[in-house]
């Protein structure tokens, strides 16, 4: 197994927010969080619906991983999952903007 696959597996295990809202909820929340994060970071003109969902879902995993050190992210519910996805999406877009410059 490659190191990337192991890292993704560890990230998925650490970010257990999917257990409280399900896959469909994750896609809906990820889309909204990705769209709001792209508005906040000024990248909305470059992103479409699909990329907003992708950024939101990856951001939710990232935010869930980071917040899991301080909170129980698995039992947070819809609102906590949205805030987690929004935080992770903003962090992800910040990193991407810095790497592109």
Automatic annotation (TrEMBL):
Keywords: Cell membrane, Membrane, Transmembrane, Transmembrane helix. Belongs to the UPF0410 family. GO terms for cellular component: plasma membrane. It comes from the Bacteria. It is found in: Cell membrane. This is GlsB/YeaQ/YmgE family stress response membrane protein. It is a multi-pass membrane protein. The chain crosses the membrane at residues 20-37, 49-71, 77-96. Its main location: membrane. The keyword Transmembrane helix applies. Pfam families: Transgly_assoc.
């Amino acid at each position: 197994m490659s190191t990337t696959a192991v890292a993704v597996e560890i990230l998925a295990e650490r970010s257990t927010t999917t257990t409280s809202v399900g896959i469909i909820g994750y896609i809906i929340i990820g889309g909204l969080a990705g769209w709001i994060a792209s508005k906040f970071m000024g990248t909305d003109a470059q992103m479409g619906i699909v990329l907003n969902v992708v950024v939101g879902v990856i951001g939710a995993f990232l935010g869930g991983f980071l917040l899991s050190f301080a909170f129980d992210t698995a039992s947070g519910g819809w609102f906590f999952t949205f805030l987690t996805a929004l935080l992770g999406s903003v962090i992800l877009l910040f990193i991407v903007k810095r790497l592109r410059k």
